[in-house]
Amino acid sequence: MTKTVLTYGTFDLFHIGHLNILKRLKAEGDRLIVGVSTDEFNAIKGKKPVVPFEQRREIVQAIEYVDLAIPEENWEQKRLDIAKYDAKVFGIGEDWKGKFDDLDDEVQVIYLPRTDGISTTELKRVLSEFDERHVQSLKDTLDTLSQIVKELS
Ligand code: C2G
């Protein structure tokens, strides 16, 4: 009897925290189905992913722990997906603890530990810093070069 586990997420800038939760979720059953939030649904969630939906879905689909990556288009589709895929477990990181307990009439609801020290938000911050520092170092180089040109002329 296939024990299907269901989860959802944006999975933007895929990182070790995402990999760990998918690994842990797969260990709870023998088939893992992941709903990847579409760009439109992310707008409803108040998120603006760096990586477009189709690429985020393709990356998640390529993960060995994932059997199927489907679009997550709204909050309400979970019950439909539970029925469609005959899911026995709904799992997600404990940052959502309690938020999906209402599903426990149909599935076992589990909240798993998150991976500390990594988040898409943090990755975006580091990347934006690189941009600023990179622009600043280019400006400094340009200033130096124009100084040299001025002295040579
Ligand atoms: N996660 C984790 N450790 C991190 C970061 C994320 O375990 N350091 C987990 C989250 O708990 C979640 C999954 O990775 O289970 C995907 O995280 P997000 O892409 O941030 O997903 P989220 O926006 O929380 O979407 O309907 C449910 C929502 O779509 C969940």
Task: Characterise the protein shown here.
The protein is an alpha/beta fold and 153 residues long. It has 2 domains: 112 residues, HUPs (Rossmann fold); 35 residues. Helix content is 45%, strand content 20%. The chain contains 5 helices and 5 strands; from the N terminus they run βαβααβαββα. The chain has a 5-stranded parallel beta sheet, with helices on both faces. Helix 1 links the parallel strand 1 and strand 2. It is elongated, with a radius of gyration of 21 Å. The protein starts with a strand and ends with a helix. The mean pLDDT is 96. Bound molecules: [cytidine-5'-phosphate] glycerylphosphoric acid ester (C2G). The site of [cytidine-5'-phosphate] glycerylphosphoric acid ester has 17 residues, from strand 1, helix 1 and strand 4. [cytidine-5'-phosphate] glycerylphosphoric acid ester binds next to strand 1, helix 1 and strand 4.
The quaternary state of the protein chains shown equals single chain
Helix content: 40-55%
User: How far apart are the first and last residues' alpha carbons, in Å?
Assistant: 82 Å
Strand order of the largest sheet: 3-2-1-4-5
Which structural class is indicated by helix and strand composition?
alpha/beta
Query: What is the C-level CATH assignment of the largest domain?
Result: Alpha Beta
Strand content: 15-25%
Helix count from the secondary structure assignment: 5
Provide the number of structural domains. 2
Bulk shape: elongated
Any idea what the CATH architecture of the largest domain is?
A: 3-Layer(aba) Sandwich
Bound molecules: [cytidine-5'-phosphate] glycerylphosphoric acid ester
Biggest beta sheet summary: 5 strands, parallel
